[in-house]
Amino acid sequence: MSGLVAIASKTDVIRCPICYQLNVPGLAKKHPACAIYHKPAGGTQSPAPAPAPSAAAAEEFASSCSLSTSWTPVELIRVTRYNHDTSIFTFGRSLMLPTCACLLLRAPNSEHGGGDAVRPYTPIAEREGEFDLLIKSYKQWGVAGQRNYRPPGAISSYLFSLQAGTKVDFKHIKFNLKIPYNINHEGFGFDGVKTITMVAVGVGIAPMIQALNEIFDGGREDKTKVVLLLGNRSVKDILLREKLDAWERTPNFKVIHHVGTRYAGVVSHKNTCPKSCRAPCKFWVPPVPERWSELAEKRKERTWINESTIKKHAFPPSNETRVFVCGLPSVYESICGPRGTPLAMESALGRLGYDDSQVVKF
């Protein structure tokens, strides 16, 4: 059973498998829940293996997933292009993955700082002998050394270079199950949870799709009400829209599309702006996005997901509600605080009165 926790190796300490942040010195103090994986402050050695968990702890995190806690090679069957920068990667294995659980994927020698890159991924579909991952290709942005520079995605660059038939390493550990779904429920699959607000940006839609599949297509008459706040740079970037549109025909689900970026208005000012105007410009009106008319008038916002739109559309804080969050690190930073940490009280959700037990970070 010790393999459930002691999974670090010499090439697997670039990122923490729980919070997925870089294992830089001092991170252990910031993330005590996963400190055993982090490098000791000022040190460079691999973290010491944790003691074997008790039988009770192992049972608490029991998972039906067929993947072991060790790296397992799985064959890439095919790659299907979805849109201009996103594809569906189909791998040849039955998973039996619990709802709201993810896999860890390893790309050898692909991390920008050296070593193996490890990231969490949530399958968007599973069939007999196959499962699908939705992968977005992150290209280099800006010039190296400049403030706005963003390197290409470590995992996406690796995956998009592969041919069908290549083996890719996966594993599943106990910490990858974010919130349990009770398949024997009566009315509400997430026990005691009657309403869910989902906050997702880009491919952060993947774990939401997994949960929505169970709620609306699981065949158990789940009565959970869900609102999805979905952020994308443009209307054409909206992923799996056909599934979302189908679910919106049910009375218990609606999507509020947010189109734009967090930087809208920061450097764009009108020539007539008064001296009192500050960045972000409070007088700047964003242009109408291309294909904007395709979205229902009451189901769209021309802005980044923020405290104001969450307050407007989300279910209010209560013991019977949860907020699911998934996106890039900047999304967590502004909405709820980084993965692997308690809810940040200075974040949007913290200021709106939600507590740590009501927020699930994927």
TrEMBL record:
Classification via Pfam families: FAD_binding_6 (PF00970), NAD_binding_1 (PF00175)
Superkingdom of this protein's organism: Eukaryota
Keywords: FAD, Flavoprotein, Mitochondrion, NAD, Oxidoreductase
Principal place of residence: mitochondrion
Cell location: Mitochondrion
GO MF, one example: cytochrome-b5 reductase activity, acting on NADH
Residues annotated as transmembrane: none
EC id: 1.6.2.2
Boundaries of every FAD-binding FR-type domain copy: 69-187
Cofactor(s) it depends on: FAD
A GO CC term attached to the entry: mitochondrion
Binding sites annotated in the UniProt record for FAD: 119-121, 134, 136, 155-156
Family: Belongs to the flavoprotein pyridine nucleotide cytochrome reductase family.
Record-linked PANTHER family: NADH-CYTOCHROME B5 REDUCTASE (PTHR19370), NADH-CYTOCHROME B5 REDUCTASE 2 (PTHR19370:SF171)
Designated name of the protein: NADH-cytochrome b5 reductase
Organism: Triparma verrucosa
